[in-house]
Design a protein that fits this description.
Layout: H1 2-29, H2 31-52, H3 55-78, H4 87-117
Helix pairs in contact: 1-4, 2-3, 2-4, 3-4
Amino acid sequence: MIAAARRRPVLWIAATLVAGALPLWAAAADPQLRALDDRLAQQQQTLRAVEAARGEERRQKLAEHMRAMNETLAQLQQLKPSGRMSLEQLRDWMSEHQRLMTVLMGQMMQEHHLLQDCPQR
């Protein structure tokens, strides 16, 4: 009986942690958000390649990154949460969407700075 009483707080803590993490899993489980997160990670790699490139190669890679960013921005703007989400899941979805928008805007600012350093024809 004493051993069971000692386990209750441990079980309660474990249940609380799992219950708190479920909404985060729901937002991260959205396949559209996951796909856009992967796409932004790939675009960040492209941006690093732009930084390393020089001359015409740099301009081409920068143009490629700009096209990809415009496509990603359009997808993010059209994205809508599922109507079956709880209020907490909706908040998590919105937080994840906002995080992706922030990442996208950060990349656009990096792109802008690189464009300023890249002489135009």
